[in-house]
Amino acid sequence: MMPEQILGTSSTTIDQHKYEMQMLPGTRSWKLMLRITKMLGPSLGKMLDTILSTIRKKKLAGAKLTGADVTQALMGMELSESFISEVVEALVDRMQESEVEFVIDELKSVCAADGTMLSGTHFDVHFTGRPWAIMKWIAWALQAQYSGSLRDSTNAASRAATSTSPQAAIPPA
């Protein structure tokens, strides 16, 4: 079992295996987020270009822009085959094996599967023949590590988009 930690743990079940994850310490969490951002940057840029284009059209029509507009634009994006192809190409072009290994190593260092830490060779043995389970695990692990931060960022962006006062966008301490 994993030792108790002040910030607590997150848990889930994926393909009948129970996973428990501790929060990464601050510096390691920050470094991991920066690496992920660098890997995803071009893909996110492509999506943001499409979203901003939709929003600009609405704003040019004289409508007031809100945080909900950003969400609506994202949900209503035209996901053509060429768009998806460009996003995936941008993602794969930036992804290096060493970066993916760094992400997995950081996440598995604070995670247990069925009560056993995923360190050393246990990760490889646990996921042998289950590459899609690794993808599900990575998605959950990143959500467990960063969902609170992303929620706070989304709330701040929404306040900024709907505010006429710059101070209103600053989250309370």
Please give a quick description of this structure.
This protein is an alpha+beta fold and 173 residues long.
What do you see in this structure?
With 173 residues, the protein is α+β, with helices and mostly antiparallel strands. 62% of the residues lie in helices and 10% in strands. The chain has 6 helices and 4 strands, in the order ββααααββαα. Strands 1-2-3-4 form a 4-stranded antiparallel beta sheet.
Taking strands numbered 1, 2, ... along the chain, how are they ordered across the largest sheet? 1-2-3-4
CA(first)-CA(last) distance: 35 Å
Total number of strands = 4
Low-confidence stretches: 1-6, 151-158, 160-170
Secondary-structure map:
Blueprint: E1 9-14, E2 17-22, H1 26-60, H2 67-75, H3 81-94, H4 97-108, E3 111-113, E4 116-117, H5 122-127, H6 131-162
Antiparallel strand pairs: 1-2, 2-3, 3-4
Helix pairs in contact: 1-2, 1-3, 1-4
Name some characteristics of this structure:
single chain, about 170 residues, alpha+beta, four-stranded antiparallel beta sheet, 6 helices, 4 strands, about 10% strand, disordered N terminus
